Amino acid sequence: MRLIFLGPPGVGKGTQAALLSEQYQIPHIATGDILRAAMANKTPVGLEAKSYIDAGKLVPDDVIINIVRERLKESDTKSGYILDGFPRTIKQAEALAKTLEQSGEKIDRVLYFELAEEELVKRIAGRRSCPACQKIYHTIFNPPPQEGICTCGTALIQRKDDRPETVKERLTVYRTETAPLIQYYKEQGLLSQIDADSRVDEVTRRVQDAVFQKSS
Fold it and tell me: What does pTM read for this prediction?
């Protein structure tokens, strides 16, 4: 089972990927996580990525692609995986297809999670982060036991990326990047669109249906 989860920030695809990963014992591979791991482990591509980030630049497609390729070579991916947030561009999608073709593999399904922009902004703008232990809370959906304070005792912060004005900019960039990718996978008959405006368990049911192609 090789899956791709696509969707804008705040749509809940990470939550659904984690649930499916646990159920089927396949890794949830989030681009941000493997990028940070590659930098922390000081792999050649991780160091290359760090050089761009330290210079305040976006990490190029080629570097992201190489980091994902490294991750897909690990033994826990043999039975499948869920790619979360990758690919983001047609170039990345084509590189992934070529990599899989070389090993006689292919993507089984692409799930695109959709949600109105107003709800996305509400979800992301409510996030609060702990700068010490990195735990994430939400003022509405997952508040800390003590308002404004993490369970580790550290004062929570709102990251710049989670402020409403920044969220709207991120969503504009995401949709511009992703629109061609959605069409790319739709033309291949791989795409399932998931309405993410429901309770977690209801969205999970829709994900299960889409994975096993019970719905279009």
Answer: 0.82
